[in-house]
Amino acid sequence: MFFRRRPSEEVLRREQASFSEHAAKAAGGGEAVLRDELGLYHLWYLELRLREELARAARVHNEFSLATWRLRLLPGESPDPELLQRAAAFIAGSLRNYDIPARIDSERFAAILFDAGYEDACTVAFRIKGDLQIRAPSAGRWQAGVATFPRDGVAGDALIQAAFRRLEADARAA
After folding, report:
1. Backbone CA torsion sign across 18, 88, 102, 167
2. Of residues 24 and 40, which shows the higher confidence score?
3. What are the residues facing 101 on neighbouring strands?
């Protein structure tokens, strides 16, 4: 598991229930099974696609990026679910149809940006960050971070850690 997050039993039950609930709808379209309550892909699917894309990009000598966004709140604050809903919808709507947006936890979102180099991915990530400040305003500030294969690493963990380090650097710069 790339994100080193052990989901709680409650989260697992919710995801399994969501999976079962959408399984009946899956006959019409398999994508419904992969979406969570915010309309983003589940974390397990992001990890699966990240592994697949790492193998593909290494095989064909291509690059791709992992963009991350986070709502930085004061310690002890929790994000408003409606705010997260708006942010998730905006992030998913701002990406290309074939990019993979997912929610990592209650404050962080990520997306695999296929065939996007570092500069292009930074443009996308920071444009979305700026728009989130306006479209999903809160007491906290939005941050963005980007990591690119192979520039920032050739393994999933290395890319994720680089993206999270850039989130922290964006937090310090703000």
Report:
1. negative
2. 40
3. 111
Mean pLDDT estimate for the chain: 83
Residue spans per domain, the chain: 7-36, 39-173
Q: Is 103 helix (H, G, I), strand (E, B) or coil?
A: strand
CATH superfamily of 39-173: Reverse transcriptase/Diguanylate cyclase domain (3.30.70.270)
Q: Indicate whether this model's pTM tops 0.90.
A: no
DSSP 26-69: GGT-THHHHB-TTSSBPHHHHHHHHHHHHHHHHHHT--EEEEEE
Quickly tell me which residue has 């039950």 as its tokens. Answer: 13
> If we measure between CA atoms, which residue out of 143, 165, 46 comes closest to residue 87?
143
pLDDT tens-digit profile of 49-76? 999 999 999 999 999 999 999 998 888 8
**Cα 10 from Cα 26, distance rounded (Å):** 23
CB atoms < 10 A from the CB of 142, how many? 23
Note the pLDDT tens digit of each residue in 104-133.
Answer: 887 899 999 999 999 999 999 999 999 999
